Give the backbone structure.
Amino acid sequence: PAQIAEPCHIDGKWWCVPVNIHMQNWAWASGAAFKTAGLEVPADWDTYLADLPKLKEAGVIPFAVGGDGGGWQISLLANQLILSQLGAEAVEKIWKDKDLDLAGGPEVLKAFTTLKSLGSYADDGSPNRSWADTTSLVIKGEAALQVMGDWAQGEFQVAGQKPGVDYACLLGPLVPDPKYVRTGGDIFVFFKQNDPEVERAQLSLASLMVNPRTQALFNTAKGSAPVRDDVDMSLANDCMKKAIDVLKQPGSVVPDSNQWRNEAFTTAQNAIFSDLIYNDATTPESAQAQFVELLKNAE
């Protein structure tokens, strides 16, 4: 996709090689955890929210989330929740255009209210836990569902679990017919060299990285999507196939909000969303008011 190529393709020359497309808007669900509660893995938010009390009654952690690292996991969750409920156009209006009426409106309040509800079904170990340890709870069937980027899928791969058998990968997240992917990715930078042999080695390595077979195997293992759409799909798992299908749709790629706002904004946003989940006294309305004020003064 052009959004992935642009950072590397400058003035008609390739300065780096994109090797994958990471997507943030996934939910990962434990088939065993939902089975323990006598439930099917949900396909949408309304069903999942209705399942939360039943999961808790069955002794399963209904919602798995971690709060370490300054709250970036909570912020990722909030961002993807708003995308899934409001769509890409609204996300751009809020974070890029600073549409304060939309940010302070009822649709965003509904997302904040959902976030508060999810927090009430997290476990006591949530505040200081890493994303990987949180994913481990889903893998072991101790927790039902986690919203996390596709790098979490690598943990399921290492554990020998298979999508559609042991766990479900729910793009959107939790959108039955997903139309958007929130993207990032990894690149390898190749500095200009004077030695022809070194340049030859660079080209050889770059060619290997974007080879269709390498792309399929590497990204299946890592959990991400390939940067090209002509890979051997027999090497891809169901999650990668879902991602590629959405990537092929025009206008499906939604930039991360960090591309529109600076690091200071991100840090403050993380704090607002974390406080909403972990502070019983913080209401969705007060958190939304703080978010609107932050957005109003954002650079």
Q: What stands out?
A: The mean pLDDT is 93. The beta strands are 9-10, 13-14, 16-18, 22-23, 26-30, 145-147, 167-170, 181-184, 187-189, 253-255.
